[in-house]
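Problem 3 from the worked examples.
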Amino acid sequence: MKIPKGMTEKEVLRIIDKIAERYAYKFRFGYFDADDIRQEAKIIAMEALSRYDETRPLENFLAVHVKNRLNNFKRDKYYRQTKDDSNTQEKHNNSKKYLMEPLDISNIRDEDEQNMRVADGFVKEFEEKEIFDIINKTLDVDLRGDYLRMRDGCYVPKPRREKILEEIDNILRDNGYEEGQIF
């Protein structure tokens, strides 16, 4: 870290902390919370010190630089799904998610079993395309995001998971499936 002339390391770190705090909550998104953005802003600011022109105020230089770099960071890391390439984007989002949230393998079996349970306690096999299509067409939009996370084996809070499984069970029963046919 290059310290500008006439300043101490403590003063520079205070300015960097101030800027990181300013942008931490403004730039959080997706899997990046305020702490992640704060840390990223500090790294960006420290890297920028080598390019600092000492004729300008340090705080203004760092604020503009960090804000622009965080905009780039958010643009590069944020991925919005469209109808055209849902499979490609879903894989892309999951790969980013798995990088950011390492999977805890100590309870993977219990979590997977819980995610796959239906309201009556039977385990649903998601590989059956016909059933899959029915669920995709009729599941309420409010439940779809958590449903896709469950399908990918990600954690979903128990009350939400139970609501989704109950809705799936109702959808399948409304479409003429009985418990013995699909489970």
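Problem 4, a separate protein:
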Amino acid sequence: MIDLETLAARALAVRPRADAPYSGFSVGAAVQGESGSVHLGANVESASYGLSICAERVAMAAAAVAGDRRIVAIAVVTDVDPPATPCGACRQWLAERASPDAPVLLVSTSGARTQSTVGALLPEAFRLR
């Protein structure tokens, strides 16, 4: 069973662990794997910006390392209204690890929320055949 409220609460709780000294834009993410386990991530920046990694990909990598290769839901918390959506790289990672109908809950620290799906965020995602 997918509990988006629990995912949102876990993403909010991990957000302060972000290491964002350059942008000041802290993001927390929580993914639920196919096993039912929840895996967390926060963004980690580098002075060489392209080497930074987003919270969503940190959470998906943590899931993979734990053996959860399929994602069934994700919640992402930012401090902007409306809540920020995942970047293109994170959308591609999601498209490769979740079904198009997997829910994506976007939450702002102010309480604003939007909900989407992986397929709506990245229609016609690139896939190797």
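Solution to problem 4. DSSP finds four helices and five strands in the chain. The mean pLDDT is 97.
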